[in-house]
Amino acid sequence: MTETHEARIARLGIQIPAAPALRAAKIQMARKLGNVLYVSGQLPTIGSELSFVGRVGENLDLNQAKQAAYRSGLNVLAQARAALPGGLDDVISVVNLRGFVACAAHFTQIAEVVNGASELMVEVFGEAGAHTRSALGVTNMPHGVVVEIEAMFEVR
Amino acid sequence: MTETHEARIARLGIQIPAAPALRAAKIQMARKLGNVLYVSGQLPTIGSELSFVGRVGENLDLNQAKQAAYRSGLNVLAQARAALPGGLDDVISVVNLRGFVACAAHFTQIAEVVNGASELMVEVFGEAGAHTRSALGVTNMPHGVVVEIEAMFEVR
Amino acid sequence: MTETHEARIARLGIQIPAAPALRAAKIQMARKLGNVLYVSGQLPTIGSELSFVGRVGENLDLNQAKQAAYRSGLNVLAQARAALPGGLDDVISVVNLRGFVACAAHFTQIAEVVNGASELMVEVFGEAGAHTRSALGVTNMPHGVVVEIEAMFEVR
């Protein structure tokens, strides 16, 4: 028998947090349309606390920014789990990630930062975690955090 | 009987402009695929006139940038109305908005700016106006305007 | 009889390169879901070589950046061709492009740059190449290239 996603997450000891609360009343954190689940851009918050504030290449280094992308990825998973009746076992595959990175003008290792979220998806979903992706270095994210990750999942 | 979206818009006195013209011959302002309508990134133009040129935190303040997001949102609605046979009554729900904000390096109230468009969607569509969202602070938009908003609608 | 897309490409002499290789093991360059093909953000690489490194308005001018967008567009087509059993003849239409441009603070001809990719789509697919679009000026792309283009195609 194939291991379910949730069983794999438990076995690997990946700690997916509770889904971060709404930032504003009119925003949905996740939304299913047909067999696609859209997840709003997630910040690297830890619970309700801001973390990873700043820019990579200024006050944060590549490793810290990659950790922030991993944390944003955990929040993406938290939102997906909360939105799906069967939790992450309802995920068939990860279709797309977009990763936005607040960076200094000279910093161009944007893809390496976003890998923090991409690697998490493969860790959690195996082959079903491979996805299309765009990665961009920008000026600022909401609240001044260093990374924002949005996602599309194929779901049951 | 439930009030239609167009009736609600009329009752609330929301003035949706004529759909801004194409910026280039090869671009479509809106495009239906299955039950999804994709709307191209809309600028805060007023008719054919550029407005809200600059960056928030430099020559524009939060309130002005939020007004620009509201104006871009009106143009999103104008494009959707023009593209749908039944106008905005063909909208079932707002699925996703992406808001891009030209900002100074120190300005991080990106979400507050994009709320100008998000609040408009809820004003117009009620509960069906809640949506997933990403918001980013970037360097420049086309023509140097401060905000660009793109959207996905679920439609009949 | 209508000319196929591949026949038109051959007749016009448009040279679509081999699909650029994966930048990272966990990323897919293209992914079909239902009748939609999502293509990951493509850089203006020529084969495995980086080119068009820098920012428009700094070390690159509008014309060079537009050429970079054309080159990124060719790589989008290369990925789509490699991902579809019938090659580009399986494309029904281009639904959406997003164009990201690394630019100097004073440079606002973002749309003109992205036209390099948009015009290519119309050249290749004719009327089926018209698409919705967003265009943004940002700080940096992966590897410091000047343009990144992502795409959605309606496919058989």
Structure write-up:
Three copies of one chain form a homotrimer. The mean pLDDT of chain A is 94. Chain A has a five-stranded mixed β-sheet with strand order 1-2-5-3-4. The two termini of chain A are 19 Å apart. Chain A is an alpha+beta fold. Chain A has three helices and five strands, in the order αββαβαββ. Chain A has a single domain, classed as 2-Layer Sandwich (60s Ribosomal Protein L30, Chain: A). In chain A, 29% of the residues lie in helices and 25% in strands. Chain A binds chain B through residues 23-24, 26-31, 33-34, 38-41, 98, 100, 102, 138-144, 148, 150, and chain B through 34-36, 95-96, 103, 105, 107-111, 115, 118-119, 121-122, 129-139, 154.
Sum up the structure in keywords.
homotrimer; alpha+beta; 60s Ribosomal Protein L30, Chain: A; 5-stranded mixed sheet
CATH architecture level-2 label of chain A: 2-Layer Sandwich
Beginning-to-end CA distance, first to last residue of chain A: 19 Å
Radius of gyration of chain A: 15 Å
- Written as H for each helix and E for each strand, in order along the chain, the element string of chain A is HEEHEHEE
Highest-level CATH class of chain A: Alpha Beta
